[in-house]
Amino acid sequence: MTDPTMALQFVYSNQNFVTDVHRTTGNSPGMASPPTSFDTTIQAGWTERLKRGLFRYHLGDLQTRILPGPHGYVAQLNIQRGIERRKPQEILSIQQEFNAKQFNFNKINPDEIIFEMLKDAVGGSTSHENGKQLHQSGRMVVLVNVSPLEFGHYLFVPDPTRCFPQVLTRFAIQVGIESVLLSSDPGFRVGFNSLGAFASVNHLHLHGYYLDHELKLESMPVKPLLPKKGFYRLMDFPTGFLFYTESDGVEEVARAICQVTDFLVDGNIAHNLFLTRGCPPCDRVPREKDRNSRKGVRIAVWPRISCFGAKEESAFNVALCELAGHLPFKNKKDYECIAEKDVVDIIQRYLLPDGDFLRLEQQLTCHLKDL
Question: Which residue of the set 71, 153, 203, 205 is catalytic?
Answer without folding.
Answer: 205
